[in-house]
Amino acid sequence: MFEGLSRPPKESPVGSYKLEVISLSEECNWEKYLPLEIRYIFKTQPEYKERFRQILDNGKAIGVRTVLRTPENILRAVHTISVHSQHNYIVNWLPKLLKDKHLPVFTEQDYIEAKKHNEDLDEAMDTILRDRLRFKKIVLIDEENVGIKPEEQRFITELSEIIYPIAVDYSVFRVVVDNAQERTKIAQSIIKALLVIGPVAHILEKFASGFGKIFAASADDLLGESAELMALRGSGFSWKELSKRGIILIPVFVLATWGAFSVEGLIEENRLILAGAIFGVSAVALSLTTAVQSIFMYKKNAIRLSKEGKTLLNTNKELLRLSLIQDFTNPARLGLFLGAMMAPFMGIIGSLLGVMHNGWVLAGIGSTESIVAGVTVISSGFINEWKFKRKLKRLMN
User: Fold this and answer.
1) pLDDT at 3
2) CA distances (Å), 132 to each of 70, 97, 160, 296, 393, in order?
3) By residue range, what is the domain housing residue 78?
4) What is the pTM of this model?
């Protein structure tokens, strides 16, 4: 649903890309309008500007090809290594592999585990290494079909070497972001389903006061919990691992339902802050419980990585930080967690304003978690793009 706003809508096994081209020598004087990569070349190697002009005057065009969506074979390779070797982590090995060709540690047990699922760890790693520099390239276009000379080919190779730092940084950025998007597809679809809660809650509250609160809190929490589970499942955790932690969710749901049912009485007793807080907590109890559990699941796996020599981090503080970074590279997970933390405060505000009998408001408060998650997922692509471009501009200065 949301990823289409920041990424090309059509999936392709070879990825999607854009091509920015300059074909007139006069364009070299309009640096403000040139692709950032070419501006970087002119900034670091001013003498190349004249060589650009010569090639452009000879019927050629020079372009920057940028991959906008990571090819599916790379995403599959990342998933293979993450799940069958790195205990569902990518932040401890993928950036270093892409940037420095620093190989992840594979144990004999990793190879055995991958083979059980008909996967090949070495082949997956080779796929990533082979294609890691395809994400951003300088290309030469023969616009007038006069033929490309060997010296022009060498010149383009030189340009690609100059932008190597940019190309490597971009490959890290693109693969990490697209991997996170890939892991949240189902979670995003569930967030979309939460949009129906508002009308139903409003009708229930109008004709059966109190039941709208229960529905708004429970329905959003159940769907939010489903989104949490799907996000974790997409990150590589098995249903067996998730089901072990599901037992506690039954009493949590019962308490949350009781809490939502008690809100009406607390409002009548004028205990507004407590009523709002309980309603907000009831609306996120399940997913907040799973969110906290997931942090400990990642922490447990971080300890396993440390023991197997797959990360140099070993202190409790370092491993906790690693687990938080990995967990919240997933935009749906980050958004759901932030929304869950905000829900009690939104409940208190709604209660103090005296609008807790309005089904639309109830649905809005109950869906705080989902709204924040949706906004986070939508904005994550734009924010990540903006951060990368800002980093590129800093390189130029």
Assistant:
1) 41
2) 10, 9, 13, 32, 22
3) 2-182+389-396
4) 0.75
